[in-house]
Fold this sequence. Notes:
Elements: H1 10-23, H2 28-33, H3 35-38, H4 46-60, H5 66-71, E1 99-100, E2 121-123, H6 124-135, E3 141-142, H7 143-153, H8 160-173, E4 177-180, E5 183-186, H9 224-235, H10 237-297
Helix pairs in contact: 6-7, 6-9, 7-10
The chain binds a DNA duplex through α4 and α5.
Amino acid sequence: MGAPKQKWTAEEEAALKAGVVKHGAGKWRTILKDPEFSNVLSLRSNVDLKDKWRNMNVTAHGYGSRHRCRLAVRRNQPVLKHDDNPMALSMVVQSDEEIVDAKPLAVSGRTLQIVGPKRSIPRLEIIIMEAISNLKEPGGSNKTNITTYIEEQYLPPPNFKRQLSEKLKNLTASGKLIKVKRKYRIAPRLTSEGRSSSLLLLEGRPRHSSRTDKDDIKILSRSQIDAELAKIRNMTAQEAAAFAARAVAEAEAAMAEAEEAAKEAEAAEADAEAAQAFAEAAMLTLKGRNSSNMMVNA
DNA sequence: CTAGGGGTAAAT
DNA sequence: ATTTACCCCTAG
């Protein structure tokens, strides 16, 4: 009875998501009839769409599949539904509204069909989390690698470096990232359910003293983050494709420039820190001397 | 038609 | 053994 199984392609998933964004979750037959998606989804039924959407959301929330839901711990929380706003839930945000825009980039001599001209990359913060989480570097990732990763995945604007540096600093200050020796790692998050404020201090975490370092960065409870990440990945699938197309033409130059730029940025940061310390010392000295001078002069 | 509970079986 | 696509059924 089971049909031979045809896995959903990235295109289909993207179309589904786009459809949900456009028409709202639940308007399956509307999505199906929309000429924008009818090509890609022609093999799917409205019920398929519904089921797929169910699967995606269920797995995206990190509590296993429906089967697990039944068979295992059934918590309360009926899985909040975020009707037609896929980015509704995000980590607690501060005030700033940094958004990285994808350049429209007209690919010359290529009929690359871009789904939406208006798609923009979500918050830098989330992208940074994705970068660090995906790089999976024990001990964290440095700015160079984060930059490289993001440039590979997305199409950052020119002022991106600056934004990244600021955001990194910001996130470190607010405790969402932990910076150790110029490397950033994701700070452990408290799950929004159940236990509220168990004191899982950021820095005070026990240093698992270099015992066979097997689980370096796995400590964080990555349920929400992963959920967001999965969504982002799907949402930016088209962008990744667009970027890939352009990358063929510009990759080399961009990469070289990026690397150099990142290096510069890092050096600048180090310099800045040193400079600040120096400045303070200098200031004190100067002040002291001025006082002396004044005393002498007066 | 949709939501959603429930299930089967193919992939992994 | 879990995930996932697809199916079935029923109540709105």
